[in-house]
Amino acid sequence: MTVMPSTETGRHRPADTAGVCPYAANSGPQGGAEPVFAIAGNGVGTWRLTRPADVRAVLADTASFTSRRGPGNPPPGPAGREVLPTIDGMFVQDDGPDHLGYRRLLAREFSAFRAGTDTSRVTATADSLLDSMLRTGAPADLVGQYALPLASQALCTVLGLPWDVHGPLMLELFAGQDLANADLNSTTTPVDHYVSGLARHVLAEPAGHPGLLGRIAVQGLPHRPLAVSELAGIAKLLLMAGHVSPTHMLALSTLTLLQDRPAWYAKLATEPACAPDVVEELLHHITIKQYGLTRRAVRDVEIGGVLIRAGQWVTCPLDTPTAELTAFTPGRRPVTYLAFGEGPHQCLGQHLSRTVLSCGLTTLAQRLPALRLAVPPDDLPRRSTHTVAGVACLPVTW
Question: Does a cis peptide bond (omega within 30 degrees of 0) precede residue 74?
Answer without folding.
Answer: no
